[in-house]
Amino acid sequence: MRHSDLMVAPARQYMTRLGLEELRTPDDVDAFMSKARTGTALLAVNSMCGCSAGTMRPAVGLALSRAPRPEFLATVFAGQDVSATARAREYLEGHPPSSPAVALFREGSLFMLLQRSDIQGRLPETVADVLAEALNRLASGEPVR
Asked: For residue 97, is pLDDT > 60?
């Protein structure tokens, strides 16, 4: 195992323990997004970028414990699974690349995107509140904007 793999293993494991499927290739991303066309989905762009990723991961966990869980949950790891992350960002068209980030989809359409600028400098609980509110709106059938 490479040294970098050892460094990111805890961050990867945190997300998979929450029930997120790890997408490591572009084909994995496409398969996930194909499933997401039939329901609701959360896609987290994980990273090792200091405090922002350290806020995003627990915020996702808290939000998933407070609000309805999307039918499909997945994560890509920026800076590690480069081609998978690039493919995931294609589904976020019109938005600049951001890591970390959390995207919500309904039937394949982007419903909401939290980017690094929405996460950085905030407490996990604060980000979780925003995400939980969005998950509630997603589950209620609120239209995609």
From this structure: yes
In this prediction the pTM is: 0.94
Q: In the predicted model, is pLDDT for residue 93 greater than 60?
A: yes
The answer to whether position 145 is within a domain reads no
CATH of the domain at 13: 3.40.30.10
Distance (Å, whole) CA 17 – CA 73: 11
pLDDT digits (tens, 9 = 90+) for 1-47: 564 677 788 898 999 999 999 999 999 999 999 999 999 999 999 99
- Catalytic one among 49, 86, 110, 139? 49
Domain total of the chain: 1
Is 78 catalytic? The answer is no
**Residue 89 structure tokens:** 């960002």
Q: Which domain holds residue 59?
A: 3-140
pLDDT at residue number 48: 82
Known catalytic membership, residue 49:
yes
Q: Which of 7, 9, 51, 123 is catalytic?
A: 51
